[in-house]
Amino acid sequence: MLKQDSGWTGEKFLTKWGVANGHYSELIAEGARKAGLRACATAAELKDNPNMIHVKSCDEERAKAAAG
User: Fold this and answer.
1) What gap in Å lies between CA 64 and CA 28, rounded to an integer?
2) Please, where are the H alpha helices in 4-42?
3) CA angle, residues 28, 31, 36, in degrees to nearest 5
4) Sequence-separated (6 or more) residues with CB below 8 Å from residue 54
5) Are 45 and 38 in contact (CB under 8 A)?
6) Is there a contact between 17 and 47 (Cβ–Cβ < 8 Å)?
7) What pLDDT does residue 1 have?
């Protein structure tokens, strides 16, 4: 996967394929984590793509990281 797209994240996948927020987005994020892939986009990646679909658990991770 990462050979084809080194910047792949679960959130980018959800956005590309138009998967709605909610239960399915959390399943994609969880699967990415279990596979050792990035589930969440960085704050900078979100800034570059403001229409990116957000996963609740990723928003929580970003909030924790921003708080220190």
Assistant:
1) 21
2) 10-17, 23-34
3) 125
4) 11, 21, 46
5) no
6) no
7) 67
Would you tell me how many other CB atoms lie within 10 Å of the CB of residue 4? 6
Residue 42 near residue 8, CB atoms below 8 Å: no
CB 66: neighbour CB atoms within 10 A?
8
Q: What is the mean pLDDT of each run of 10 residues along the chain (68 residues)?
A: 80 88 88 96 94 94 91
Handedness of CA 24, 29, 33, 36 (dihedral sign): positive
Distance CA 19, CA 61 (A): 20
